[in-house]
Design brief:
216 residues; mainly alpha; Rhomboid-like fold; 9 helices
C-alpha cells in the first residue's frame, strides 16, 4: 500500500482531469451556462431533465472549492481503493455510486416537488430550476468502501483535529448526512445524494463479496 500512496492511480488521475476540465469549460467558455443546463441533474418534472444527466452531473461542480474538496477526497481514498479493487472494478464502483446517488436524489426531489406543489405552486416551480452537480455522491461511496475494506485504518480529521478509525468515520458522516437530509438544515446541499452513494456502494460491495470477487 505504501507504493500506491506515493503515486496517483490511472482511473483516479483521469477522473480528476475530467472534473477539472469540466469546471474550466463551465467557467471559461461563453456557453458554460448551456453546459449546466444540459448536463447537470434536474428534477424529473423539470423541462431541463434528460435521462443521461444521472451520469453527466457528477463531472460538473459549482465552483473551485466544491471541486477541490471532492477531488481531494477522491485522490486520498481512491488510490488505495483502486489498488485494492483493480482499475476496472474501481471505475465500475465509482460510477455505480454516482448513478445511485442521482437516482435517490431524483426520488427525493420528486417527493419534495409534489409536496411543494400541494402547498404552493411558486415554490414547486422554483425547485424545477435547481440543478444538482458534483462528484460528492460517488465520493461518499468511496468513503463507505474505505470504511468497509479498511475498517481499522486511522483517519485524521482536519476539523476537529482528531484521529478516528475509518469505520467510525463512515458511520458518523452517514448519520450527519441523514440528519441534515431529514431535518432540512443546510439547504443547498444534496444530502440524499451523499447517502445514495453510500447505500449503492454498500450494496455493490455486498454483491461482489457474495459472488466471491472481493473479500472483507
Amino acid at each position: 500500500m505504501n507504493n500506491v500512496l506515493q503515486t496517483t492511480t490511472p482511473v483516479v488521475k483521469n477522473l480528476i482531469i475530467a472534473n477539472c476540465v469540466a469546471l474550466l469549460a463551465t467557467t471559461l467558455l461563453p456557453f458554460g451556462d448551456l453546459i449546466i443546463e444540459h448536463f447537470a441533474l434536474f428534477n424529473v418534472e423539470s423541462p431541463y431533465f434528460r435521462s443521461y444527466q444521472i451520469f453527466t452531473y457528477m463531472f460538473l461542480h459549482g465552483g473551485f472549492s466544491h471541486l477541490f474538496f471532492n477531488m481531494f477526497a477522491l485522490w486520498m481514498f481512491g488510490r488505495t481503493l483502486e489498488w485494492r479493487l483493480g482499475s476496472q472494478r474501481f471505475f465500475t464502483y465509482y460510477m455505480i455510486c454516482g448513478i445511485g446517488a442521482a437516482l435517490l436524489q431524483l426520488g427525493v426531489g420528486y417527493a419534495e416537488y409534489q409536496h411543494a406543489l400541494a402547498a404552493t405552486g411558486n415554490l414547486a416551480f422554483r425547485l424545477l430550476g435547481v440543478p444538482t452537480v458534483g462528484a460528492s455522491g460517488a465520493v461518499y461511496g468511496l468513503l463507505l468502501a474505505f470504511g468497509v475494506l479498511y475498517p481499522n485504518q486511522m483517519i485524521m480529521l482536519i476539523f476537529p483535529p482528531i484521529a478516528l478509525k475509518a469505520k467510525w468515520f463512515v458511520v458518523i458522516y452517514g448519520l450527519i448526512e441523514l440528519f441534515f437530509g431529514l431535518s432540512g438544515y443546510q439547504q443547498g446541499v444534496a444530502h440524499f445524494a451523499h447517502l445514495g452513494g453510500m447505500i449503492w456502494g454498500f450494496g455493490l460491495l455486498w454483491w461482489w463479496r457474495k459472488k466471491g470477487k472481493i473479500f472483507f
